[in-house]
Write a structure and sequence with these properties.
It is built from nine helices and nine strands. The chain has 255 residues and is an alpha/beta fold. It has a seven-stranded parallel beta sheet with strand order 3-2-1-4-5-6-9, sandwiched between helices. A two-stranded parallel ribbon has the order 7-8. Strand 1, helix 1 and strand 2 form a beta-alpha-beta unit.
Length: 255
């Protein structure tokens, strides 16, 4: 088997690549930072003996998304991990618009482009696993982190919809979405935010996600606390959820 992992230079993407390699799966890893990818390639080949191919790309550019898909087509990818993303923290009136548009380019536009292209390939041959990295944030309104929460809501809803399309068509393609709570990665530093709930390790989240993906689980929530929160959130009006989220997140921003 061979897998493609986007956003593989750090965090969850890097650890999913490690987990897949540990299971004997060859990987194609992509991100902007080639030096990080080279380090990961050396680690995976030496530790697990798998084949690793590097493609340095900036998927915020739609043309590079299409080019990435074109370049890997010859490998007949079995697993696509649609993982790249980042967040911009702060009130919508105060955050930088260009930074937010870049966030949406990655979290929504690039995500959608790659999801569609690989889904079409997998549908044609009626086989393959797609793992979209969403977030538990995708189930809630998110004051002070609104564009990130909204972008992950897009990932959640489109993945749910496509899962039903595949089920209705009796397709053998498996689509899953990883919805972690806080994870101890570079994401926290880049967003300049701390979390009220203690973060889980990226290694644990990645291994849990890979196991659940192979089990055909649609919604993958590694944290019991977040699983309970999502269930309870369905019983509470959105206006109340927004107020509670706002109270929690107003205490998150780093100075």
């Amino acid at each position: 088997m061979i897998a493609l992992v986007t956003g593989a230079s750090s965090g969850i993407g890097r650890d999913i690549a490690r987990s897949l390699a540990k299971h004997g799966i060859n990987v194609i890893i992509t991100a902007r930072r080639r030096d990080r990818l080279e380090e990961l390639k050396k680690e995976l080949t030496e530790t697990y003996g798998v084949k690793v191919h590097i493609i340095a790309a900036d998927i915020s550019d739609t043309a590079q998304c299409r080019e990435l898909h074109r370049r890997v087509k010859k490998y007949n990818i079995d697993i696509f991990v649609n993982n790249a993303g980042f967040g911009v923290f702060g009130d919508l009136t105060d955050t930088d618009l260009d930074r937010e548009l870049a966030e949406l380019d990655v979290n929504v536009k690039a995500f959608h482009t790659l999801f569609k292209l690989f889904l079409q390939d997998f549908r044609k041959r009626d086989y393959g696993y797609i793992l979209n990295t969403a977030s538990s944030a995708g189930f809630f309104p998110g004051p002070h982190f609104s564009s990130y929460y909204a972008s992950k809501a897009y990932v959640v809803r489109i993945t749910q919809a496509v899962h039903e399309e595949l089920r209705a068509a009796h397709s053998h393609v498996s689509v899953s979405m990883l919805c972690p709570g806080p994870v101890n990665t570079e994401f926290m530093d880049k967003a300049r935010v701390d979390f009220t709930v203690p973060p889980q390790s990226s290694e644990y989240v990645a291994e849990y996600a890979v196991r659940q993906m192979f089990a055909g689980q649609l919604t993958i929530v590694p944290s019991p606390v977040m699983r309970a929160g999502i269930i309870l959130g369905k019983l509470v009006p959105d206006c109340v959820l927004a107020h509670l989220a706002g109270l929690i997140q107003s205490r998150r921003e780093r100075l």
